[in-house]
Amino acid sequence: MARQRPLTVAGRPATLGEDGGVTSSPEQPSDASASPHALVAELLAVAEQVARAAGRLVQEGRPDVVGVAATKSSAVDVVTAMDLASEDLVRRTLARLRPDDAILGEEGGHVAGTSGVTWVVDPIDGTVNYLYGLPAYAVSVAAVVGEPTPATWTVLAGCVHAPAAGETWTAGRGTGAYLDGRRLAVTPAPSLDRCLLGTGFGYVAERRRAQARVLAALLPQVRDVRRIGAAAIDLCQVATGRLDLYYERGLQPWDLAAAALVVTEAGGAVSGLRGRAAGPDMTVAGAPERVAQLVAMLEELDADAPDAPVADIG
User: How does pLDDT run across 186-228, given as a tens digit for each residue?
Assistant: First the structure.
């Protein structure tokens, strides 16, 4: 079992309560800078500062033709030079602003810290959109405590900055979710057949075939389906009221951390299947009552079943 790092608030020992609240140790002097809300506010300010800086780099530094620097899970799961440059900027900035914190990034992996806070970073969410010049891409930056996995962490603050769209979502634990300063609340849940549903697809053929089977079963039961191509933006659109529901299999911690907090702070629910937390097996988000309904449908469809091999028809 991994050893839990000590959590500190303004340099003082702190504890994480059962409700996810952060409190300074009682034997330590308390002041405004050591309060739980002050910590959330500090982390949120850093998250937004870093996300906006990376967003400027990504948008202003985009060449007319973007090349593929590397691939990951398949030939269509791409990394651009700007993914790497953006994450490098984020890591250098966080190291300057919060030198004791850990960082978990999509491209650079995990670097340990001593404060108990981990920054979970997606330098470009929606890389394929960015590659093709589509505007649906974002930088996602979140601060979590606990082990940096969706099943065990507590997200304290997050920012999803979409530079091409000129939109920035922010959320702090217990302080609400906002789009460019406007407080968000998930829309009242319509009946499922009136819900606009968002989803996404993986990069491996076996996973895509399984996802197509699930989508074919759901499509006749909802208003319509949208596939934006950036999971963090999808989740934020739920909080904004532009999607009623969202589900996707295969999301990684950096896809979820900031945007899931935006949804929950807007009054929505974010869940996995079969009583599990949202994560790689499945993520479902929306108004709580409709999330429960969609979770039940996805479980009945075995949407988290192992992927079956795809026959070669070439």
Answer: 988 889 999 999 999 998 999 999 999 999 999 999 999 999 9
Burial of 64 (0-12, 13-18, 19+ CB in 10 A): exposed
Describe the chain by its helix, strand, coil percentages, rounded to 5: 35, 25, 40
Report the distance separating Cα 245 and Cα 239, nearest Å: 10
107 exposure class (CB count in 10 Å sphere: 0-12, 13-18, 19+)? buried
Neighbour-count burial of 205, counting CB atoms closer than 10 A to its CB (0-12 exposed, 13-18 middle, 19+ buried): middle
Residue 237, exposed/middle/buried by CB under 10 A (0-12, 13-18, 19+)? buried
Say whether 235 sits in a helix, a strand or coil: helix
pLDDT in tens, 280-310: 999 999 999 999 999 999 999 999 998 877 5
Which residue, among 277, 220, 285, 222, has the nearest Cα to 248 in the 3D structure?
A: 285
What pLDDT digit, counting tens, does each position of 225-261 carry?
999 999 999 999 999 999 999 999 999 999 999 999 9
The CATH architecture that domain 7-183 belongs to is: 2-Layer Sandwich (3.30)
Domain boundaries, given as residue ranges, for the chain = 7-183, 192-300
Alpha-carbon 217 to chain mean position: 26
- The reported pTM is 0.87
192 and 221 in contact (C-beta within 8 Å)? Answer: yes
Q: Could you please report the per-residue DSSP string of 52-82?
A: HHHHHHHHHT--SSPPEEEESSSTTSEEEHH
Q: Provide the CB-side half-sphere exposure for 148 (13 A, CA).
A: 27
Instruction: Give Cα 160 distance to the centre of its chain.
Output: 8
What CATH class is the domain 192-300?
A: alpha beta
